[in-house]
Write a structure and sequence with these properties.
With about 290 residues, this protein is mostly helical. About 80% of the residues lie in helices and about 0% in strands. α1 runs parallel beside α13, α6 runs antiparallel to α13 and α6 runs parallel beside α14. The protein is globular and about 50 Å long.
């Protein structure tokens, strides 16, 4: 049976709004204009504060009990999620925003690879083709920064895509793991990891303002909206909406800070986005046929 039209429209609106909010992430990292360690420390601290407050005020305190019941597996996912959040900051700080978000868009295919490797799930031929195209696109993007300062940021983005794929695979293995405590506790993980190398109290007032927008407003709202969207939309359709960030993220940075997109990023990014779009569309069509 297919999803009710009203619920589907709600899901589309929620997913689109969530990704729109998320797309400002790279710009806010740029506007904070401080050492990546400082950004990561405050990002983690403020996300923990805001998401924890949301859980408490929304009356979902039982999520903490369910989170603890998953034991070490929940801790592993939390640590990975916190590291991923920091890698995004460090990548954007060392390469163009376009390179980071384009390379990161390949994480869904790394998740498929890890699902095959760790969970022994069957991977469809179209997914293997999409993985090959996506990896080729990542290599094209990375080749454009070889021998240049941005190569470190691109390398971090590749590691981020790999670890994000692993994180998604582990989350798939634990569908009952509540996501909000994972997001909240990953903030503490990130803050602890970066605190020894940061100088969080030596910033300008404007920098604290941008960090507050990121940690208290933008990231929590985006996380909540995207998690809500999965109630109304199949996961392939939600992943299709994530393409909006790949397009809009560099646009905001270009518009506000005049940061151009490297030519090879356009080439590799087109390959990755095309692979993600076609694969997601085929997955949605198959799921829709199965629901009728």
């Amino acid at each position: 049976m297919s999803l009710p039209k009203l619920d589907h429209r709600q899901g589309v609106l929620i997913a689109a709004l969530g990704v729109l909010v998320l797309s400002f992430d790279a710009l806010l990292v740029r506007l904070a204009a401080t050492d990546p360690m400082n950004i990561a420390f405050w990002r983690g601290t403020l996300i923990f504060m805001s998401v924890t407050a949301f859980i408490q005020l929304s009356g979902n305190r039982k999520q903490w009990r369910l989170y603890r019941a998953h034991g070490g597996a929940a801790l592993l996912v939390t640590v990975l999620y916190g590291i991923n959040s920091g890698l995004f900051v460090f990548s954007v700080s060392h390469t163009t925003a376009a390179n980071t978000v384009v390379i990161l868009s390949s994480s869904a295919f790394f998740a498929a690879f890890f699902s095959w490797l760790l969970l022994r799930e069957r991977v469809a031929l179209r997914t293997w083709v999409a993985i090959a195209v996506s990896v080729a696109g990542v290599l094209v993007v990375f080749s454009g920064s070889l021998g240049k300062p941005g190569s470190l940021g691109d390398l971090l983005a590749i590691i981020l895509a790999l670890l994000m794929g692993l994180t998604l695979t582990l989350l798939r293995r634990m569908p009952d793991l509540p996501k909000m405590p994972v997001v909240a506790c990953s903030g503490i993980v990130l803050a602890i990891l970066t605190w020894p190398l940061s100088s969080p109290l030596g910033l300008e007032p404007a920098q604290y303002g941008w960090l507050a927008v990121m940690g208290l407003v933008q990231m929590p709202i985006a996380s909540v909206l995207l998690m809500m969207a999965t109630r109304y939309l199949p996961s392939p359709e939600v992943s299709l909406f994530l393409l909006i960030e790949t397009v809009l993220g560099p646009v905001w940075v270009l518009w506000v800070l005049n940061e151009a997109v490297p030519p090879l990023t356009l080439v590799g990014g087109s390959a990755i986005l095309g692979a993600v779009a076609v694969h997601s569309w085929l997955s949605m069509r198959r799921e829709t046929r199965g629901a009728i």
